[in-house]
TrEMBL record:
Catalyzes the NADPH-dependent reduction of ketopantoate into pantoic acid. It comes from Mesobacillus foraminis. This is 2-dehydropantoate 2-reductase. Residues 178-291 form the Ketopantoate reductase C-terminal domain. The keyword Cytoplasm does not apply. Transmembrane segments: none annotated. It is an enzyme of class 1 (oxidoreductase). It comes from the Bacteria.
Length: 302
């Protein structure tokens, strides 16, 4: 299968490395310099004490022409508008697209894409990009995908042909799949970014844990979650299993970069407004992170 992967961040490098063992992979990067480096040295993956390098074809995304069987979009949600503008310049009638963004704010952007099929997914792996051609795989997980619109034959083929150490699981309902990840992101990411702590600290500090519980309750009320206890157990389990990890939102804040707060808490606030539900804690942390983003802009411009 010919697989295109858009985005040279941690997830793009991770998927490129593993999928290239069984498929023809092309990695589309934002900058020509990253593509040149990967073409020269390959993609290096570090896992524990092991390090392995694989040769992968990389080109600048500006050169994308839609010749892949499936394209995996592995960029941040706020980068999607620019990516979609390029995608729409090519005929997509025979193209299958898989979007791997946090939150659910991006769904409205996918509605008018006229592709053969659109899939969405969530990634449970822990990964950090150490260099333009190097990624550390810090926590093994699973990628869960579902059909957003169109037919799912190619997604099933991708799942069945994935490397055993990098499984892709096909779910029946995209909304349930994304809501489960949204709840996790809505609770863990903003709080770790606000308090500048690792995921596990939200459980270890009794006062942070109280706030975690309240933010979860508010999120559950807005989204009208059934089986609330299962969702809460999942949040606690992920906090525990990734206790030493720093969330992607915390890393973005520390780097003075934009975050995915709009796709996560921004989406929850949109739902709250439509349902006329109060969400004061969610609005508080949404506003706090937006303020941090402005501070980051000042650091970058300074």
């Amino acid at each position: 299968m010919k697989i295109g992967i858009v985005g040279g961040g941690s997830i793009g490098l991770l998927f490129s490395f593993y999928l290239s063992s069984l498929h023809k992979v092309t990695l589309y990067t934002r900058t020509p310099s990253q593509a040149e480096r990967i073409n020269e040295t390959g993609v290096n993956l570090v896992r524990g004490n092991l390090s392995e390098c694989r040769k992968i074809q990389a080109v600048s995304f500006s050169a994308w022409r839609g010749t892949d069987d499936i394209v995996i979009i592995a960029v941040k949600q706020y980068q999607l508008p620019g990516i979609l503008a390029v995608l729409k310049k090519q005929p997509l009638d025979s193209m299958c697209l898989l979007f791997l963004q946090n939150g659910m704010g991006h769904l409205k952007l996918l509605q008018d894409i006229k592709a053969r099929a659109i899939f969405v997914g969530t990634v449970e792996h822990g990964a950090v990009r150490d260099a333009p051609n190097k990624v550390s795989h810090n926590g093994a997980g699973v990628t869960k995908c579902a059909v957003f619109k169109g037919e799912g034959k190619l997604l099933s083929e991708l799942s069945s042909e994935a490397p055993p150490e990098f499984s892709l699981k096909v779910e029946r309902d995209y909304y349930s799949l994304l809501v489960q990840k949204l709840v996790v992101n809505a609770v863990i990411n903003p709080l770790t970014a606000a308090f500048r702590v690792t995921n596990g600290t939200l459980l270890e500090n009794p006062f942070y844990y109280q706030i975690l519980c309240r933010v979860f309750d508010e999120t559950a009320e807005v989204l009208e979650l059934e089986r609330k206890e299962e969702y809460f157990s999942n949040v606690i389990s992920i906090c525990h299993n990734t206790q030493k990890n720093r969330s992607s939102m915390l890393k973005d804040i520390e780097a003075g970069q934009p975050t995915e707060i709009e796709a996560i808490l921004g989406y929850v606030l949109e739902v709250a407004e439509k349902k006329q539900k109060a969400a004061p804690l969610i609005r508080n942390y949404y506003t706090l992170i937006k303020g941090e983003e402005i501070q980051g802009e000042g650091l970058r411009s300074g």
